TrEMBL record:
Name of protein: Tagatose-6-phosphate kinase
Source organism (scientific name): Niallia alba
Taxon lineage: Bacteria, Bacillati, Bacillota, Bacilli, Bacillales
Group of enzyme by EC: transferase
Keyword Nucleotide-binding appears in the UniProt entry: yes
UniProt keyword list: ATP-binding, Kinase, Lactose metabolism, Nucleotide-binding, Transferase
Length: 315
């Protein structure tokens, strides 16, 4: 079973304005819709689209629970989310305009999670995880959540010997890297923060991370990614596509990577699906849609170069 954990869930409110989004002007919304938010939940959506059995864990606010439940139901997401009484799942506002120059995201902080619900999550992990399971933890932490609580979750999963993938940033990323997990996907900025801007190159930093972490993916947006595994480092380019909304592209990358990895695919195939699906996501207007067939049609426009071995071009 693949479990995803979203500690700080969200509902994305997508607002499309006509023309160019401009400060100091009334930007009129001409289309508003809700979509799933929260990085772990996005990963669950991707896994579900790949027909991979998975369960989304984490928390959900009681006040606007019907809206969140209806979004989850539409996407057939199997979940066990612990309800926080009197709390409301945060909204993340995503604004797009006609310029196709990327989306603007404003996220609320999220609700406080009670100690009782944290303990219930730990109990669930104790009770149900087995060593064959994969656990993906993604997204920001609730405002009152501590690093100690996050580490308790990681420790519980580690004790069960599961494969652990994390898409976290800042202090949370630093803490899980210290513990040693199996997969991380920071962007270039998050890597620099992790190393407190020390003067080594990005490649050197990735190599250092790869000593402790089995799979290190550093996303570079339109420029693709670096992927480090064992002693190998690859540079993966992304196909050029017509961008409509880049929100959620990283989550589609993670979900597609895990979907292929679980099926035992080779690293080249894993990277092609992750990169292709993420590029397909960027062409869609909402936070979650992508097309697997479209992703496959991009494969011959994705290059994977193994670095450090005389420009050894893998594909
Ligand atoms: O990656 C996109 C996304 O999942 C959005 O849908 C939005 O909900 C946001 O990220 C939440 O990010 P955060 O880092 O605050 O958990």
């Amino acid at each position: 079973m693949i479990y995803t954990i979203t500690l700080n869930p969200a509902i994305d409110r997508l607002i499309k304005v006509k023309g160019t989004l401009t400060k100091k002007r009334t930007n009129r919304a001409h289309q508003v819709e809700y979509d799933l938010g929260g990085k772990g939940l996005h990963v669950s959506n991707v896994l579900t689209k790949f027909n991979m059995e998975n369960k989304a864990l984490g928390y959900i606010g009681e006040t606007n629970r019907p809206l969140m439940e209806s979004i989850l139901a539409k996407k057939n997401i199997c979940h066990h989310l612990l309800v926080e009484d009197g709390a409301s799942t945060r909204e993340c506002i995503v604004v797009m305009d006609d310029t196709n120059a990327g989306s603007l995201m404003i996220t609320e902080n999220g609700f406080h999670v009670s100690k009782e619900n944290h303990s219930k999550l730990i109990d669930f992990l104790h009770q149900f995880l087995t060593e064959k399971d994969i656990v993906v933890i993604a997204g920001s932490m609730p405002p009152n959540y501590t690093i100690a609580q996050l580490l308790e979750i990681i420790n519980t999963i580690k004790n069960k010997k599961c494969f652990i993938a994390c898409d976290l940033s800042g202090e949370a990323l630093a803490a899980v890297v210290d513990m040693g997990i199996n997969f991380i996907k920071p962007n270039q900025y998050e890597v620099e923060v992790l190393f407190q801007n020390n003067q080594t190159t990005l490649i050197q930093k990735i190599k250092e991370l790869a000593i402790k972490i089995d799979y290190v993916v550093v996303s570079l947006g339109k420029d693709g990614s670096y992927v480090a595994h064992k002693d190998n480092l690859y540079q993966v380019t992304s196909p050029t596509v017509k961008e409509r909304n880049d929100t959620g592209a990283g989550d589609v990358f993670v979900g597609s990577f895990i979907a292929q990895f679980v099926q035992g695919k080779d690293l080249k195939t894993i990277m092609k699906y992750a990169t292709g699906c993420s590029a397909s996501k960027v062409t869609k207007h909402n936070s979650t849609d992508f097309d697997i067939k479209e992703a496959e049609s991009y494969f011959n426009r994705i290059s994977i170069k193994k670095l450090g071995s005389d420009e050894d071009v893998v594909s």
